[in-house]
Amino acid sequence: MDQGTATKGVAVVGAGYAGCAAAVTLAARGVPVTLLESGPVPGGRARRVKTRDLELDNGQHILSGAYSELQRLMRQVGVPQDAVLRCPLELRYAEGFAFRALWLPAPLGVLLGLLLARGLPAGERLGAARFMLAMRRCGFRLAADLSVSDLLRRHGQDGRIGHYLWRPLCVSALNTPPEGASAQLFLNVLRDTLAAGDEASDLLLPRTDLSRLFPEPACDYVRANGGEVRCGETVRDLEALRAQCARIILAVGPHQLKGLAPGLAPGYGYQPIYTCYLQYPKQVKLKFPMLGFAHGLVQWAFDRGALTGEKGCIACVISAEGDHQQMGQDELAQACHRELTEALGALPDPEWSQVIAERRATIACAPGLSRPSQTTPIPGVFLAGDYTDPDYPPTLEAAARSGIRAALLAMGG
Q1: Tell me: the pLDDT tens digits for 342-401?
Q2: Domain spans of the chain, in order of start
Q3: Pairing of strands 300-303, 290-292
């Protein structure tokens, strides 16, 4: 890094969603910024990877209408509206369960959607609506944190409604099994999605790869505003970087801080996300772009043909820890194919398969989870990353918010 430039600006280490959010925020305010990324493409744990001469995502992510800051940044850097498929929250399962939030003023749309859900006894549908009203009355705040499983049991939500709705929402949002997941973080998600504004619960399904969805346009924006982006550059010596730059944002995972700046973040457990891509003949497609599965390894299947134009390609997602971690790639791909076949009917054998395992996809969201301050004892050094957000589980929105906050701290405001 050029010392003359560096001393006037801010270095951002890591071009994931948090680092890109920080760099865009700085560049928009005229602060010289240098964005350093060790990988070949920006995106961090939500990026494009090349394998088998194919370009795939390292995981299948979805966005929510509640992701207000990430959506604002996407608009700011010029991401087109059709980069995501926006639709009301709708969960369809291959086994017949279906829930859809109606486009009515909150909370009526969700409550009526629960009462009309298919595949549940009437008593459980009514109980789910009562649960949401009870959580609304207490402001979605608990006197003491507990596990999501305990919360559901206390409120009679551990039957079919828990199996098809609450538990899958927990795993999707917190990437942690309900038995060990923070109920307070889960309620924060419900507060800002199911119980919030009219479009907050909408699903936003990416129609492009995750690097093109925001990080690459963000990098282009930084360059266009006088900043610099360097991919393929690993920072191994924080003190050497501090000698060149007075202000630094470390937008890397907490496990990566151990070698770079020990002691800045607590030690965490981690949870994986596995994505199994199955390429079928082009005529194969799902009935809905995102389909749920509730009786095996696969939790959600995404029709890449409907989303990104990759006809016949189905992405099977398995979030959080489980038996799949002990399987080889071929064994896991066969299991996913078998589960799709059992649920959807006869399918031809896949032409190819690819398993991508992000073993440290997120920190484990346990009850009472500790978050580090984004300011550090090291002068001029700040943290960014989804794990630093005090209110949200580790999502793309949490990453974006943390990056914005870190940028403002680095500017002294």
Answers
A1: 989 999 999 999 999 999 999 999 999 999 999 999 999 999 999 999 999 999 999 999
A2: 3-47+66-80+207-268+371-410, 89-201, 270-363
A3: antiparallel
Q: Round to whole Å and give the CA distance between 289 and 306.
A: 6
Edge to edge, the sheet with strand 300-303 lists 98-100, 90-93, 290-292, 300-303, 313-319, 270-279, 352-363
Please answer whether residues 67 and 400 qualify as being in contact, where contact means their C-beta atoms are separated by less than 8 angstroms: yes
367: preceding bond cis by omega (within 30 degrees): no
Would you say how long the chain is, in residues? 413
**Cross-strand pairs, 11:** 34, 248
Separation CA 316–CA 339 (nearest Å): 10
E-assigned strands of 29-163? 33-37, 48-51, 54-57, 63-64, 84-87, 90-93, 98-100
The model carries a pTM of 0.94
What fold, for 3-47+66-80+207-268+371-410?
FAD/NAD(P)-binding domain (3.50.50)
Mean pLDDT of 222-226: 97
Do residues 181 and 393 lie in contact, with contact meaning Cβ atoms separated by under 8 Å? no
Q: Are 292 and 299 within 8 A, CB to CB?
A: yes
Does residue 254 contact residue 265 with C-beta atoms inside 8 Å? Answer: yes
How far is residue 317's CA from residue 41's CA, in Å, rounded to a whole number?
A: 22
Helix boundaries (H) for 138-224: 148-154, 160-161, 167-174, 183-192, 210-213, 215-224
Q: How far apart are CA 14 and CA 17, in angstroms?
A: 9
pLDDT, tens digit, 9 for 90 and up, residues 239-252: 999 999 989 999 99
